[in-house]
Amino acid sequence: MESIYDFIVKDNKGNDVSMSEYKGKVLLIVNTATGCGFTPQYDGLQDLYDKYKDNGFEILDFPCNQFAHQAPGSAEEIESFCQARFGITFKQFEKINVNGNDAIPLYKFLKNEQKGKLGSNIKWNFTKFLVDREGKVVQRFAPTMKPENIDKFVKELL
Q1: Residue 88 is part of a domain; what is its CATH number?
Q2: In sequence order, which ranges of 5-146 are alpha helices (DSSP H)?
Q3: pLDDT of 118 above 60
Q4: How does pLDDT run across 35-78, given as a tens digit for each residue?
Q5: Are strands 26-32 and 57-63 parallel, antiparallel or unpaired?
Q6: Which residue among 7, 14, 19, 53 is buried most deeply as judged by most CB within 10 Å?
Q7: 21 lies in a domain?
Q8: What distance in Å separates the CA atoms of residue 94 and residue 79, rounded to the nearest whole number?
Q9: CA distance 4 to 20
Q10: Would you call 20 helix, strand, or coil by DSSP?
Q11: Are the C-beta atoms of 52 and 20 separated by less than 8 Å?
């Protein structure tokens, strides 16, 4: 795979979604969890999405249960929780693995393109990857990086 647009992922309803649908958009791809200390970042993510969605910005939310089993529940339960508690309107995908042999190909690609301080593996929930309009993975942000602090990087790419 040469480009982020070469991948097919599944949305939270089990439908195939080609990443090529996002050509020309700035993306923030996040592995999330509903029972994590960083879960309140959903508020900041939604604020960021609301601010820039009309300018070609998308957030792609990939729940992940690999870190202390902090994303329990079905896709439907996760979606209901996120909508009720945080008013999430950005796209959610199926629950995935981001590390190990079972990591989905998209995340293997993201990690290879932007390694973290500890190498390529994802350290925890709410690791964020910023992708430009050409599909280049330009930055990786640690879970501690709040969405409001990513605003300036998103704005530069838009």
Answers
A1: 3.40.30.10
A2: 41-52, 75-86, 105-113
A3: no
A4: 888 888 999 999 999 999 999 999 999 999 888 777 878 888 88
A5: parallel
A6: 19
A7: no
A8: 10
A9: 8
A10: helix
A11: no
